[in-house]
Amino acid sequence: MRIKAGLERIPGGMMVVPLLLAATINTFAPNLLRIGNFTEALFVNGASTLIALFLLCTGAQINVKSFGVSVGKGATLLATKWAVGAVAGLIAYMFAGDNGLFLGLAPIAVIAAMTNSNGGLFVALVGQYGSKEDRAAYSLLALNDGPFLTMVALSIFGAMGFVNGMFSFQSFIAVLLPIVVGMVLGNLDDEMRTFLDKGSSMLIPFFAFALGMGIDFGAIVNGGLTGVVLGFLTVFVTGTAGYFVFKALKWNPIVGAAEGSTAGNAVATPAAIAAASASFSQYADLATVQVAASTVTTAILLPLYIAFLVKRMEKKGYDFSKEVNR
After folding, report:
1. What's the domain of life for this entry (predicted)?
2. Of 30, 153, 217, 253, which sits with the fewest C-beta atoms within 10 Å of its C-beta?
3. Is residue 247 part of a domain?
4. Per the confidence metrics, is the pTM higher than 0.70?
5. For residue range 188-232, what is the model confidence (pLDDT) as tens digits?
């Protein structure tokens, strides 16, 4: 049985298939793999550890002379994602009805979902279609985790004052450190670089499965059609914007499109905003389920959108193997 070859025939298969398989298990038999010890540690709770190891292996492939390129790409991803999401949120506020909603969407849900991105999904997609420098760009993109950038957008709009304590510099360092450790090892010893290179691709299906164990298709039902619409907007608006920004800068456009998702941690953002300002409390519950639905929708839809873009680019002669091996 040629499992690897079968997965590789599916665009993004090494990430998409394990993720959807795990999400199906988590939805219909959530306790099947939650039996403790090594099984649960690897298949359910292992995403963060496996992604950290992936980032270390990736960091080892980066020549210190080219790290500035990664920083530039990460800053571009972060700025594009935030700007597009903030503008979408502003439009939602401007055209909200008397009930404070825009087409049934809570404006804080729009900002929370569209300024945040699923780092694990980004790493998986870029690990399959991007270069070593592209993968390292995640160290800056990780800044959009949590409610901090949503708060910044709201403060700019004058909706609320700036809220301190919503961003932890320590958390940012904790994301960056595995990449730095990998860079140090790889630049000190070429044999270590070669040894760790194997982990860059081998780990993808494993952390994709663990990510899928955090997805419940029921969130789409609870969030309703509006949450699904929010997920579509996140993928096609922020993802497409990233695609064209990177294309304009003559970088791999797929890397730009790969940030078009909503992370699971964004589900907590509406509650955090409501805790900081009581004026948002009436929308917190609705916004929470809409962001949850967006998280699930983007986890399914973004890989399919990336696959479409990859096929389109390959027809025009783009060679992704050169990117991955660069």
Report:
1. Bacteria
2. 30
3. yes
4. yes
5. 998 998 899 888 778 878 888 888 888 787 766 766 789 899 999
